[in-house]
Amino acid sequence: MSAHSSPDTARHSDQTYSAFQQTVSECLIRHRSILDVLSKFQEASARVNRAVAKAVTTCGCIQVDASKPQIPADISYWEIKQHMATHVKGEMCEHCVEVLEQEIGRTLFYLAGLCDVFGLDLDRLVEDERKRIATLGVFNLT
Ligand SMILES: [Zn+2]
User: Fold this and answer.
1) Is residue 115 one of the residues assigned to a domain?
2) Could you tell me which residues come within 8 angstroms of residue 25 by beta carbon, excluding any fewer than 6 positions away?
3) Number of folded domains in the chain?
4) Per-residue model confidence as pLDDT tens digits over 20-71
5) Alpha carbon of 15 to ligand 1 centroid (Å)
6) How many whole angstroms from 18 Cα to the centroid of ligand 1?
């Protein structure tokens, strides 16, 4: 094995995102324009939505059963989570999980590409965001 840190050997290290971004940078040749990166990122994100929709409407392994949450007025903020639902019924089949994972991976590819265009460090961004949400806790997304 080489002493160099290739993307493959770094995959499970604490610099996974850096290795991923480096690989994306090497692979992103034809669609390097910011216009291509942004539109491909948006397209990939839409395909994530489509993968979930097709699991419902084409495969049928999951259903969406959504309604307004009924949250009692006299509970604490910490108890609200018990009354919130994902609205997903059933379990996604192996095929649909595989498709969803591919589409999420493609989205990550263009996210890393976006970072690369502007010289941003995806690994640092992920760590900074982790620290931010850990500090803010449950108040982060309210
Ligand atoms: Zn399915």
Assistant:
1) yes
2) 112, 113, 116
3) 1
4) 999 999 988 887 899 999 999 999 999 999 999 999 999 999 999 999 888 8
5) 33
6) 33
